[in-house]
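Recap for those who missed Tuesday's class. We walked through two folding examples back to back. For each one, the amino acid string is listed first and its predicted structure tokens come directly after. Nothing is annotated here on purpose, so try labeling regions yourself before you check the end of the notes.
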Amino acid sequence: MRTGTVIALSSALAVLPAVPAAAEPSPSTDPGPALPEGSEVRFHIEDPRILESSGMAASRLHDGVYWTHNDSGDYGPVLYAVDETGATVATITLTGAGVEARDWEAVSVGTDDNGAPAVYVGDIGDNFQGGWPSVRVYRFTEPDVLTDATVDATTYTFTYEDGGRDAEAMMVDPDDGRLYIISKEVAGGVYAAPAELDPEGTNTLTRIDSAPLFATDAAFAPDGRHYAIRTYWSATVYDAADGVPGRGVDRLNLPDLDQGESMTFSHDGSALMVGTEGERSPVWRIPLPDTVAAGEDGGDGDGSAAEPGADTGDGAGADDDAAATGGGPSPLLWTGVGLAVVLIAGIALLVRAA
């Protein structure tokens, strides 16, 4: 390593503000920014095996039950059915060709080939920012009786038409069964899967709309009239009467959570249920405006969400004024981004100097 390179890198790092040392993770119940009236912690996930709840979906067959799973790690391909007391009522272990727990980030409920309710698990995370050549989604028929079981899942393989990318959000349209994946990027996108999925070949994901900055989950309302995409700071609700992409009709602040990566609609469609990673993590109930909860078009909303198909390319998407509503990225986040940029530049200098 050359002395000049070391001095240049050290000087660059010195101009950045200090980042506070990370405290031991502890899921927060502090609401943070102003939340919709009636917002509350509905329950805590009590199962000590669930430490990184990274996705959530309301069961289609069992009222008051939500499917969730851990993020990447040594957790195995396991889903948990959790009720509104926070208790785990069943665990489902997935097996079958291609099934693994590489980086599970999302879960949704749709239908199987026979029209029965089915659970879709998104193994769609990519910490290498596009390093994986493909991603996978696993599907199994939702059980009529909730009990611990091992089930064979169908594996679907996907590639993005414009190259690999990281994603944490996935949703399935209850009207036509179409699957969508939303990338987690500065200039994120909404990607549509083919109308008919092929378990034998590779399914291409097509970009059809822009997405909010750093989307971490997405879900359709039970009646299919609306869908929502969440970030770490807010959730944008879209009118889906004419399908996806839809028109943004409202944006809701979300509570400050340590790593808010899960969201689903409540069983009656009147609220968003949002969660976070961490031990005994809280699940919040965020009431929706009456027009959205009633399945109406929601009026004009705040007018800040992008029109259907509008790809701004600036990475802000529907959250470009989130800071003005109290739900924007924190200064600490931008400090981390700046630090990452400088570190990458430093590595490049070291490589060139070697």
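Example two. Treat it independently of the first, because the proteins are unrelated.
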Amino acid sequence: MIQKYIIAGALLCATVSIKAQEVVLKGKELFGNLEARHIGPALMSGRIIDLANHPTNSRILYAGAAGGGVWKSTDGGATFAPIFDEHAQSIGAITVDPNDPDNTIWVGTGEIWTRNSVSVGDGLYVTKDGGANWKKVGFDKSERISSITINPSNSNEIYVGVLGALWGDSEERGIYKTTDGGKNWEKILYIDQTTGAGDLVMDPQNPDVLYASMWEFRRTAWGFNSGGPNSALYKTTDGGKTWNKIHNGFPEGNLGRIAVAVAPSDPKIVYAVVESKKDKGLYKSEDYGKSWKLLNGDFGLVVRPFYFSRIVVDPKNPDILVKGGLNGSISRDGGKTFKNLGAMHSDIHDIIFDINNSDRMYVGTDGGVYRSWDGGATLDMVDNLPLSQFYHISVDNEEPYNVYGGLQDNGSWYGPSSSPGGIEARDWTRVGVGDGFRVLRHPTKQIIYSEMQGAQNLWRYDIAKNQTKNVKPLKVKGKADLRFNWNAPIAISEHQPDRLYIGSQFLHVSEDQGDNWKIISPDLTTNDPAKQDKESGGISKDKSGAETHTTIFTIAESPLDEKTIWVGTDDGNVQITTDGGKNWTNVVENVPNLPKNTWVYHIEASVHNEGTAYAVFDGHNNNDMNPYVYKTTDYGQSWKSLVTDDIIGFARNIQEDYENEDILYLGTEFGLFITIDGGKNWSRFTNNMPATAVHFIDLQKKTNDLVLGTHGRGVIIIDDISPLRQINQATLNKDVHFFDTKPYVVTEEGGFGGGSTELQFVGANPSSSAQIIYYLKKRHTFGKMTLSIEDMAGNEIVSLTPGKSKGINIVDWNFRTKGPKVAAGKTLTFGGFTAPRAPAGSYKAVLSKGKNRYETTIEIKNDPNSIVTESERAQQQKIAKALFDDMEELAYLVYRIDEIIKTAEELKKNDPKAEKITSAVVSKLNDLKKTLVVTTGDNYVNEAEPELREKLSELYAEVANQFETPSAGQLENKAILEAQLDKALVTFKTIQEKEVDKLEKYLAKNEKPAVTYKDKAAFLK
């Protein structure tokens, strides 16, 4: 019995020991230097929420985006750079501290123009070093911060206006004040859980006087309500201790959103745009808000107050004011009359005037930032802000593959994943207008499907013929009117390439690319009439179709069985058919711990098992910010949650890895999360990946690229995620592990890019090099570590700089070997920097850490599309090698000349008797050297005539960089230059036998150090 207990105890210890050895890596420890690249586009940019400028330096300004973070310009708005990538990318307000404008900037997160697709924020941030580092200072549950106002005489006194939650009640709303620079906050104005601070402005001449616009509002998935009895405009004259409504002259009854602005040059003048049922429009006060007068009710001033509620007054002229709106309105007579701003993207959200010149303006729109130099008459778009807001993306199988997607208010597009010189604006092609959503490429034909909001159009675009047809399904006799979501789902069958699906409340299928449709389901939604056809908007009617509810939102045909189709609805149903639509089962009741009617945002049918699928539910429009991610392996009969505390933000999309079912990629409101163990542990990917909303994920099967459609930072690609597939406990417990890589192809195609200007965004291309990918269990900190490429015989051909980070390291090798030794001269010869390409074949990558050596094999292949024959390739390599040797022969010759001259000149300096001998040597050798290398001039305007080195290096570079056999002209040029080199060697030998020989005898006779130099092998080493 005692023996049994001993055995059991030993087994228990063994189990504990095994568990203790399990390695779990998180974040950068897992991903190492696997890095995302941004391809934009920027030609249609994205929604700008707030603009702010430096109070004394007109070159510095800031732009806050709906989902793309904070961007800073130091050149007057010509270009911008991101400074807020690690934090929530939805921005509500930016304020520069007037007392420390070079260093202190405050940012409130959470978009305040409350359309149904807005992102959320997570609090208030401050930087004390101009944006290099940020610190959160509270308001974690604020969701949306509309205003930040700082006392111009006291940076410790700050007011914050919290608009608050869009989709539910919140006690975080109201006006807050700090008197200690943000350490402590006091709520100084609060109405109720439904009424937030829409605007907060300070009298520029009296910091105790503030105006606060309080707004009662609520959005649901099927409607919006703006206004109520609690909407009001308040004023304080004692720094927020007491507040009073200032409605004298305002409309009677309930009010909605109120925009307010104080004229900086004359603060007794206050403007307000009031949302009301009657007498809505622009009101003006000329007595600090004591009384108001209605001046103007133009459509441009009152349209969509929830979306356009910003008034800006010229800092020097109180009669010039601008109002955000559909086109933007400007008045130059104190608000009596308005005209539209100049041509630019519609939907104007913010405007700022240049601090020195009011004719210079900056405008934030749904399409990015615009600049004007003539008071808004004409405008120029800033071309380098890649803030595109994708709802959906997809990829094709072209080489390079294309990325397709639809954008918020910016149509539908496709563009290449790589392009010569980088991915430029001109590389993108428009395939839709309006709000773009799903864009799909036909698997086998030159056909693209795209749609615009609410399936108003479903286009079938023939690329080759440049023809477009609307193939949207129409109402069927005897059936109900069709309800399409604003973001209506379409899907292409993986089994029948001409088969196309679209969802209304029914599932529609076409077997002929949309020419004919049939309905293959009953109404798959809850069909709740309370969530249909309701008046939306509240005080201001706003029924655009964006609130159409009880609709199908996601469709997933199983890639393993065409009769198995999953459908998810925006009102919470998960429907499945296993017989091609004849029978349907709602399996959402089987999902544990899921609040009822939670939006089914995405269903992913597994490529590994027929009964397996993943479902992502989004409850944020029920004011539920929790992520819901589930997996079923039995056709929805049971579900398992994959959510852990590692996931931040509500989830929107999931992508299953095609090869390793334990690897999943999850997009949330705050970025990308990856699991390599089936959901037990998730890691946030942050390598050049901002905390932006990831709305859709696709995986390109040929390249293994993870392609992300973000709602604020365009398309982001992580190239070749295949190393993640090879990570397991065996790998993680090794000190060093090399990942298997596919053969690398030396691409021979070329082309010209680089047509963009310095002010335009250009998307990054993927690496065209071979990559040595390895895992380090620990970061290398002490001792020598080297990485080299060797041929299979063990000869080193090039040395590389190793990555030393814990986790995955990726080192590029550009297929080049060591470059030639180049003759020294007065100037550089750029051809001499060219290294020969390694021929196709197998090579060893060798990592040395101290006494330990680790190696892996890399295979290089020639381009399969090459027009170069093997014999031509061999000839090119032979001639390149000969010219390489010529370069080094010349280098060794010049080296010897220099060493002899150095010895002779040293002797001449110390021994006047030797002048005749040394002068002869130096003169002869310098005459020779002048024919070999450039000995005068510089690398720019004082350019000397090329000598042998320059001519030889230019020819060498041409031949080494090309793939085809050298031309007759190149071969003839080679013969000419080699003849010159041979002649120079003969001349040098003659000088050696005469002048140098006399020098050497003199040195020996006078017991002085002899002429010495390295032998050729030592010199070239």
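Answers for example two:
The first helix runs from residue 2 to 20.
The domain at 744-862 is CATH 2.60.40 (Immunoglobulin-like).
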